Amino acid sequence: MSAVFDVERVRKDFPVLSRELSGGRPLVYLDSGNSSQKPTQVIETMRDHFAMHYSNVGRAHHALGTESTDAYEAARDKVAAFVGAPSRDEIIFTKNASEALNLVAYSFGNRTNDDPRFTLGPGDEIVISEMEHHSNIVPWQMLVQRTGATLKWFGVTDEGRLDLADGVITERTKIVSVAHQSNVLGTVNPVAEVARRAHEVGALVLLDASQSVPHHPVDLAALGADLVAFTGHKMLGPSGIGVLWGRTELLEAMPPFLGGGEMIEAVWMDRSTYAPVPHKFEAGTPPIVEAIGLGAAVDYLNGVGMQAIEEHERALTAYALEALGEVPTLRIIGPKGLDGRGGTLSFTMEGIHPHDVGQILDDQFGVAVRVGHHCARPLHLRFGIPATTRASFYLYNTTGEIDALVKGLHHVQKVFA
C-alpha cells in the first residue's frame, strides 16, 4: 500500500462498509473496540484454506496436512515478528485473550508447580486495577478463592488515569496484571513504570494488550512485561483466536492449562510428559484457519503500517474530542486530551440512558456504537454511573462518520428534551 495513508482506499478492502441498512442508511461502524471488521484479504485467505488446503495440523503426513501445518506455523512467525517476540516459540495460540489470561492465572497456586514464582497462598498478593475488563478481574478473584491470597488494585483518578499510589505493590506481590490500554477510557497506561515497580519486588507482570496491539506499534521489550495477552478479532482477524506471549523460561516453568493431543511428549497409563513450548499449551485440534486468518490480518496491518494507523486514529480522536465537546450535557468519561489515550471515547448524556442513545443512533442514523458497562462494571461504579455510550475508531473510520455520530447525538437530545 501507499506510504501515504489513504482511508478511502483502505475502506474499499472492507466489504461490510459499503453496506446499506434498512431505509438506505449507510453503515457507520464505530464499535471496533468491541470487534473489528475484516478486510477481503483475511476473508479470502480463510476461504481458500478451507476450500483447498484444510487438514489437521501436526498429525497428518500427507500433502494437505503439511500445507495446513506450514500455514498454521507461518501465522505464528508473523505474530511473533509483529510484536517483536524474541522467539516464535514464545507465541501461544489460545481461543481469545480471556483464555490467555486464565491460562496464566491457572499457573499460580497450581499444586503441580513448585516454582516459587508461581506458588501462591495466604499472605501473597495479586495486583490489578480498577479499570480492568472482567477478563482480567474474574480469573484473579477465582484464584484468591482457591488459594487464600489477597487481591489488591490500583485506583483510577477523576481524569481516568491509573492512580499509581505507593503501597499497592509490596514485597508480598507475586503478579501485577493490568491493561495496556483501557477498553472504556481509552487511557494508555504507563506500563513500563508499573513493570519497574513490580520487578523491584520480584513480581511478574502480565499485560492485557487487547486494545493496544491492534492500534499502536508494540515492542514487547519496551513494555517490560513478562507475559502479554491479546486477541485476533479486534485486529482485523477472526474470532476464536487469541495470543499469549511469555518469556521462554517462564513458559517452560508453567504447567499446561489443558490436557490432550499434541501437548504431550509421551503418555503411559499412569503418567505423561509434555511437549516443549508452545505446543505444551495447545491441546487438541487448535483454531487452525482462525490462526491463519490472524496471520493474514497481520500481513494487512503491516502493509498499511502501524505507525500510519496510529497517526490516523490520533487525528480521528482529536477531531472527535472537539466535536463531542460541542454536544450539550455530554460528558466524556476519561482523558479529555490526546496525551496518553487511544481512539476509544466513552460518554454519558445527562438524563438519557445509554441504551436509548445507542438505539436511536442505530435505528435512525445507522451509527453502530456500544452501550453498557463494556465488561468493566467496577470502573463504571467508580464513576458512579451504570453505563456509558462508547465510540471506538480504527483505520477504516473517517471524520465524516464522526460527523454522523454528532448529528445523531444532537437528534437524541431533541427526542428527549
Automatic annotation (TrEMBL):
EC number: 2.8.1.7
Catalytic reaction annotation: (sulfur carrier)-H + L-cysteine = (sulfur carrier)-SH + L-alanine
Keyword set includes Cytoplasm: no
Keywords: Lyase, Pyridoxal phosphate, Transferase
Keyword Glycoprotein appears in the UniProt entry: no
One annotated GO biological process: cysteine metabolic process
Cofactor or coenzyme needed: pyridoxal 5'-phosphate
One Pfam family in the UniProt entry: Aminotran_5
InterPro entries per the UniProt record, alphabetical: Aminotrans_V_dom, Cys_dSase_SufS, PyrdxlP-dep_Trfase, PyrdxlP-dep_Trfase_major, PyrdxlP-dep_Trfase_small
Domain Aminotransferase class V residue range list: 28-405
GO molecular-function terms, A-Z: cysteine desulfurase activity; lyase activity; pyridoxal phosphate binding
Family assignment from sequence similarity: Belongs to the class-V pyridoxal-phosphate-dependent aminotransferase family. Csd subfamily.
PANTHER family: CYSTEINE DESULFURASE, CYSTEINE DESULFURASE 1, CHLOROPLASTIC
Entry protein name: cysteine desulfurase
Upper taxonomic lineage: Bacteria, Bacillati, Actinomycetota, Actinomycetes, Streptosporangiales
